[in-house]
Amino acid sequence: MGLEERRRREKESRRGAILKAARKLFLERGFRAVTVDDIAKKAEISKGAVYLHFKSKEEMYAQILLNDVAKFHQAVTDQLANGRSAADNLLRFSQVYVDFFLKERELFRILMTYMLHTNNMSLRSEIDSQIVGATNKTMEIIEDIFKKGMETGEFPPGMDLRLKRNAVWGFLNGIISLHLFTGREQKREERIRSTITATLEIFIRGLKAPRED
Question: Is domain 56-208 given the CATH code 3.50.50.60 in the classification?
Fold first, then answer.
């Protein structure tokens, strides 16, 4: 292995160690409670070394979100079998989405923080664009499910795909936001799952209902 390759690997390894430490702290304590000093201590490196890899705490926060959303995309793609109906795939998508954020609740807070406070995050334009792209990819998965439903005749032709995908994306996040951090802990997961399932079933029935000319 050449010197340049060794340096590249060492840089990637240190960057990975910083993100691993930051992710653990963010998910345990929440974004606001964690400092760069905390991250440096957890990663067993100097604060200055952290800043060699990341401009700010917000940038680490954003990179963690990107990494985890990429894992979600892979997980949901693996779950959407071609043999299922579009309705089944919408339900499966919602289940994987809920599973993903119930496992790491602070990650959902990270996503919502970015969505609601984009202008306050002080991110480099490159990272900002990557997050927008990752969010769009999630919505494109939903849109593709609707598109296949139209192609097979399960859903009516001529639907506004963008409108339908935005509706599903919106109520998934809204229902999770409503129940994830409030109410009795032992009832939260049940409420999220049952509310999303019921809402999707109503939504799908509405799509399939015959239209009057």
Answer: no
Cα 61 from Cα 127, distance rounded (Å): 11
What pLDDT score was predicted for residue 90? Answer: 93
In whole angstroms, what is the distance from residue 44 CA to residue 49 CA?
10
CATH number for the domain running over 1-54 = 1.10.10.60
* Separation of alpha carbons 18 and 8, rounded Å: 15
CB atoms within 10 A of CB 147: 17
Tens-place pLDDT, residues 23-56? 889 888 888 899 999 999 999 999 999 999 998 8
- The angle at the Cα of 70, spanning 117 to 28, to the nearest 5 degrees, equals 60
Quote the CA–CA distance of 28 and 32 in Å, as a whole number.
11
User: Token pair of 161, please?
Assistant: 């795909």
- Give the start-to-end residue ranges of the domains of the chain: 1-54, 56-208
Taking CA 200 as the corner, what is the angle to CA 199 and CA 203, rounded to the nearest 5 degrees?
90
pTM above 0.85, yes or no: no
